[in-house]
Amino acid sequence: MITDDFDYLAPGGRSYTLAAGQLARLKKSSRVLEIACGRGEAACALAEAFKCRVDAFDIDPVMVEYSMKKAEKLGLGEYTNFFVKDGRDMDFGEGKYDLILAEGGALTYIGREEGIAHSADLLKEGRCLALTDLIYLRDDVPQPVRDAYEEGVCSYLTEIRYRKLLEAYDFEIMFASMLPQSAWDRYYAQMRRQVMSPKNKFTRAFKDSMMREIDVYYNYGGMFSIGYFYAVARLSRKKRVKPAGEGLRIPLAFSYSG
User: Fold this and answer.
1) Is 42:101 a contact under the CB 8 Å cutoff?
2) What pLDDT is attached to residue 118?
3) CB neighbours of 152 closer than 8 A, spacing ≥ 6?
4) What is the pLDDT of residues 192-214, one digit of tens each?
């Protein structure tokens, strides 16, 4: 999947966002919450496609202002509500939303378990959480890859551990897939252009971090150790989800040592 969704700040794109809306069966009366909305691309895509109400927040006021201007430019102001908020403080009431969207690793940044628990509280019974997040493809991830992606702050799960965490909070996965290589190539090509453009006032630390990540991904085995997990999961408190088996995984057909 090669896209031109250059306002997405992570691998993925509009097609994944709209698929989540379809799986959640959004309609005009639906309410959506997006966690860490970035530049507002996903929130605007859902509002435009389904004419539903979308609340979206980000901790960065610059991103929120950008998103608001985008929505107004697209004529979506009446459907969208962008605001500044720390995702660790999602006090919006219970049983309010039909879909919660957490793209670009939003759950990892705010605290994965806490974010899933908050989402379970905020969703109506039987409604959906849609996410994209970075995962490890193997247990023995080389240290250079860990250093580039964790940066001493984040930690990542394998797919089976991510599934078990969702199940622990009564989520039943409706659909799951890994993003293809083309999504990574599009994302890194986009970020390389943005980092190198004098128009974008990124900090030196961010530029160095992004270029190191790109280098590790292509030249030091990153693509064999990390992947991007896309999942849409339904909240099902009334029907307990059967736990996944221990150690369930598909062996990789390659190895990397470094």
Assistant:
1) yes
2) 93
3) none
4) 988 898 887 778 998 999 999 99
